[in-house]
Amino acid sequence: MIDYHEIVLNLPKPPSLNAFYAGKHWTSRASKKNSYFKHIKTELDRFDVWHMERFSVDVRYNCRYDVDNAIVCIKFLVDYLRQNNYVADDTPKYFTSQKTEFDSSLEKDCFVAIIKCHGYKVIENDERATKLDVLQGGRKNAAISNKPVRRTTHGKRKPKVKS
User: Fold this and answer.
1) What does DSSP assign to residue 53?
2) How far apart are CA 53 and CA 89, in angstroms?
3) How many structural domains is the chain composed of?
4) pTM of this prediction?
5) Using a CB cutoff of 8 Å and minimum separation of 24, what contacts does 18-25 make?
6) Residue 72 burial (CB < 10 Å; 0-12/13-18/19+)?
């Protein structure tokens, strides 16, 4: 395990925060997020499979966005890292800081994300499969992890019987 490691990703321009939430239906937002996830995956596929204990993210960008509207890049990146088991969670225990900075020296519409990994470990294929099985849950896997498995709270419920 390496205590500190940096991973640099070149990402496309995400939607601005204002445009992302301006009266859009959740399906439209989900579509944009999934599209951006494909770009993140392409960038991360250049590296070995890895996991980290804690991390921070710095983003430098060059486009017309206000600094606070460029935060969507970090949001999408962190969500992707969490959902794909690069880190256990995105709570402050694991995700320690973020920074967004305008940088006119970059190419137009370019976003550069630097993931600062603490407790960085390259995952072997067998380890990754076991880790995914545990993280994706199921009763037999819950016993392995000693952590409660998140269950969905929606679904069909039995109607109350009136007496």
Assistant:
1) S
2) 9
3) 1
4) 0.74
5) 18/69, 20/72
6) buried
For the chain, residues with pLDDT lower than 50 are 129, 132, 134-154
Cα 147 to Cα 13: distance, rounded to the nearest angstrom: 37
Residue 25: enclosing H or E segment and its boundaries? none
Question: Does residue 133 form part of some domain?
Answer: no
Is residue 160 domain-resident? no
pLDDT at residue 157, as a whole number: 56
Per-residue pLDDT, 21: 73
Q: Report the CATH number that the domain containing residue 49 is assigned in CATH.
A: 3.30.1330.70
Q: pLDDT value at position 150?
A: 45
Domain assignment present for 146? no
Q: Which residue range(s) make up the domain with 10?
A: 2-123
Query: In angstroms, rounded to a whole number, what is the distance separating the alpha carbons of residues 155 and 86?
Result: 29
Q: Is residue 142 part of a domain?
A: no
CA 49/CA 47 separation, integer angstroms: 6
CB 110 within 8 A of CB 64: no
**pLDDT attached to residue 136:** 45
